[in-house]
Amino acid sequence: MSVELTRYAYLGPAGTFTEQALRTVPETAGAELLPMVTVPEALQAVRDARADAALVPLENSVEGAVPPTLDGLAGGERLMIKREVLLPVTFNLYASAGADLTTVKTVASHPHGLAQCQGWLRRHVPQAELITAPSTSDAAEGVVRGDWDAAVCAPVAGQRNQLEELAVDVGDNAAAVTRFILVTRPMRPPAPTGADVTSLVAFIAHDRTGALLEVLTEFAVRGINLTRIESRPTKERIGRYCFFLDCDGHIEDARVGEALMGLRRVCADVRFLGSYPRAGADHEGDGRAEPSDADSDAAGWLARVRAGEA
Ligand SMILES: O=C(O)C(=O)Cc1ccccc1
């Protein structure tokens, strides 16, 4: 039985890339959308049951991970990823009416917005001080508030705030894509599709020599493709890290289930973050970790040996 989700928190205010990504999720049509100022607030809204789900940015193809999202998944009450959404991102530069590139002294954006436009900004507004805002859309609202002169944001955010477009497509990489995740309180993962991702956090046993190699080996020996590995400090003390892992396959796939059991044996702790359809898998079979012929052959052989037949 699938649970109906009706209230979606997201990194707001309206006009963020996160809102645009959320609107591509068919189930959100007619749902209540709850803009939150920061990623931790969006995640907390789900934990407190003020929202059924939250969409937050996880990583970008140019700038990498969004640390508050990783930290929010690794700590606190457990949350689960139900779906991922990929969105190409293009940035424009907006300011108040009458401004031009020579008069802009301050430019604000989300840290990923500033990072992805830094080359363009250095070349075209070298005099400008760069200011970090909680989101690109908050940066646009900040121009209206008079907090700074200009914002790097999505066209919708510039238009919503009736700002003047100073430049279009100011991103350094035209192919930039951001990966967002829809998180819920823990629930049964969606059924396998044959093209799924499994995400987890491995807290390795630090006193164990070769602990990370053991973790990787659990996947490698079962022929499971690891698609991402990212470390974050656990914040206990310097030198303590946890590892965010994504692999092809679904927790209901025999091989993935066995790898998770293996991790449970070798790690200090394992936090399962979810199994969900891989976005952009353009044909069935991407991200599959179903038993191969070699696996069924091995299972059959073991059964025969146990039965005294081989
Ligand atoms: O600030 C936003 O609009 C977001 O949704 C976060 C973000 C920022 C920059 C690139 C992609 C997502």
The CATH topology of the largest domain corresponds to Alpha-Beta Plaits
Residues in helices, as a percent range: 25-40%
**How many domains in all?**
3
Computed over alpha carbons, the radius of gyration is 22 Å
Shape: elongated
End-to-end gap:
43 Å
Order of helices and strands: EHEHEEHEEEHEHEHEEEHEEHEEH
Give me the secondary-structure topology:
Layout: E1 7-11, H1 17-22, E2 32-36, H2 39-47, E3 53-60, E4 64-65, H3 67-74, E5 80-88, E6 92-95, E7 106-109, H4 111-124, E8 129-132, H5 136-145, E9 150-153, H6 155-160, E10 164-167, E11 177-184, E12 196-204, H7 211-220, E13 226-233, E14 241-248, H8 254-266, E15 267-277, E16 284-287, H9 293-306
Parallel strand pairs: 1-2, 1-3, 7-8, 7-9
Antiparallel strand pairs: 3-4, 3-11, 5-11, 6-9, 6-10, 12-14, 12-15, 13-14
Helix pairs in contact: 7-8
3-phenylpyruvic acid is lined by residues 11, 16-18, 57, 60, 89, 110, 112-113, 135-137, 178.
Search tags:
310 residues; alpha/beta; D-Maltodextrin-Binding Protein, domain 2; Alpha-Beta Plaits; six-stranded mixed beta sheet; five-stranded mixed beta sheet; 9 helices; 16 strands; 29% helix; elongated; binds 3-phenylpyruvic acid
Structure description:
This protein is α/β, with parallel strands linked by helices. It folds into three domains: 1-89 and 176-188, Periplasmic binding protein-like II (D-Maltodextrin-Binding Protein, domain 2, 3-Layer(aba) Sandwich); 92-167, D-Maltodextrin-Binding Protein, domain 2 (3-Layer(aba) Sandwich), CATH 3.40.190; 189-293, 2-Layer Sandwich (Alpha-Beta Plaits). It has nine helices and 16 strands. Strands 1, 2, 3, 4, 5 and 11 form a six-stranded mixed sheet that branches. A five-stranded mixed sheet has the order 8-7-9-6-10, with helices on both faces. It is elongated, with a radius of gyration of 22 Å. The two termini are 43 Å apart. The structure holds 3-phenylpyruvic acid. 3-phenylpyruvic acid (PPY) binds next to helix 1, strand 3, helix 4 and helix 5.
